[in-house]
Fold:
Amino acid sequence: MLISAVLPCYNEEKVLPMTYGELTAELQKITDEYEMIFVDDGSRDGTCRLLKEFAGRDSHVKYISFSRNFGKESAMLAGLRYSSGEFTVIMDSDLQHPPELIGQMLEFGRQGYDQVIAQRDRTGDKRWGSFFARAYYRLVDRLIDVELTDGIGDFRMLSRKALDALLTMNEYNRFSKGLFSWIGFKEKIISYRNRSRAAGESKWSFRSLVHYGVDGVLSFNNKPLRFCIFIGGFAILLSLLYVMFLLLSILFKGIDLPGYFTTIFTICFFGGVQLISLGIVGEYVGRIYYEVKRRPHYLVDETNFDQARK
Ligand code: UDP
Ligand code: MG
Structure:
């Protein structure tokens, strides 16, 4: 097998026939040695039925159907585990990741690059969306040790070596942008023009994006914990200075009027600091809880893969 394409799909019945058609046309141009692995992430529409139909008439099509929605990260992981290609391409199933790029990616892959990454520009993005995204990347860059770049997502080609390395990481909370960057190896970035989704609608709400953002920061190191310690230290230092100042002013000027404002302010401010710190610690504890349970990342309901192979 030369190329495996891994496509997570969640309620994508509207766009799947188009994706299947375009991708097949593109891959056929390159080679006949390819497989398309569609991972149905517990879709509630006709996605699974469509996949079975494709698989019925085309032996290049493999599908894995989850017992419920486990999220895109889990869907990608499943596809990657089953992938047998020398090169593996990960792409969205809504045609936002143009299949035309695969040829170019393969070329670089053959030149010895282990990760060929497609970087999109932000053409046609909602203004606010891209403003938040840019601010987020700037912030995250300081907070975590792996490097993330704006416009780089999951659309990439991995060599067998890079894929095997990626699969050694078994953590439950997966933040693949960080994982891809963590493994390293020789990388090549190519850019493409952003496209909007061909049909159907995006599964990301603002809320889920915020959650994803928090995951990204917390799943990669303990800098936020350290940040709490610094803030706490700074707060203690400030309050010591303040107490000293008060003491001196009492010594020299006698007892002042009761400082209602300052008292309330301090209580509120430090209450806030403590809550934030507790929250961050709690997040880590929660994550540890999930990790130690060692639950599987997903459960497969149906597939046309030989189950024994995995
Ligand atoms: N997806 C998935 N499981 C989910 C949510 C999304 O497998 O729980 C897939 C979805 O089918 C698509 C890809 O992840 O192929 C990207 O999703 P979407 O297009 O909704 O995100 P956007 O492009 O808007 O960031
Ligand atoms: Mg999309």
User: Anything to note?
Assistant: The radius of gyration is 25 Å.
